Amino acid sequence: MSTAEITRALGKIACPCGLVGVKHGNKHDVTTVAWFTQESSNPPQVMVALHPQRYVLELLDAAGEFVLSILADDQEEIAAFCGSHSGRKVDKIKEQGLATEPAAVIATPLVQDALANLECKVSNRFQSSDHIIIIGQVVAARVNSDKKPLLYYEHNIAHWGQ
């Protein structure tokens, strides 16, 4: 089977778009993610795949916590911007005018207009081929909207029902 056919087939996996946010000291960064899912229900845990070069991963390793913000269908610009700029060079929160609010349990703020926010404490981390897998125990959550989630499908940002 060809690599192109494998890539095409993998593109048929529909994934929600989200942001992983981490605040450590006076540094706060978010990055776009599409490879995440619930990993366990007892305790409630999520799995997030991050590229090892992502600045947010450096902050996450230092902080030991993160917020997974599930983006709503109308937040495509945020997903595109935060996934294509490095937090080493750009304050993505300021540039996008992202409103944040304090989390209930952890130090990393929530994205105010996200569909949902999951406050997570890192419970495991491991290398998996070309990505780092982060397992986070969900210690608090907030649902902000009844909108539909923004999706990643066929290697592009997509909208519910398209």
Helical content stands at 10-25%
Q: Please give the count of helices.
A: 4
Mean pLDDT: 94
Structure class: alpha+beta
Distance between the termini: 28 Å
- H/E series: HEEEEEHEHHEEEEEE
Q: Please indicate the percent range of residues in DSSP E strands (runs of 2 or more).
A: 35-45%
Unreliable residue runs: none
Radius of gyration: 15 Å
How many E strands? 12
Spatial arrangement of strands, main beta sheet? 3-2-6-9-10-5-4
Q: What is the 3D shape?
A: globular
Main beta-sheet annotation? 7 strands, antiparallel
What does this structure look like?
A hairpin with a 2-residue loop joins strand 2 and strand 3 (27-33). The protein contains 4 helices and 12 strands. The longest helix has 9 residues, at 55-63. The strands form 3 sheets. Strands 3-2-6-9-10-5-4 form a 7-stranded antiparallel beta sheet. A 3-stranded antiparallel beta sheet has the order 1-11-12, with helices on one face. A two-stranded antiparallel sheet has the order 7-8. The model has no long low-confidence stretch (mean pLDDT 94). Helices cover 19% and strands 44% of the residues. It is α+β, with helices and mostly antiparallel strands. The chain is globular.
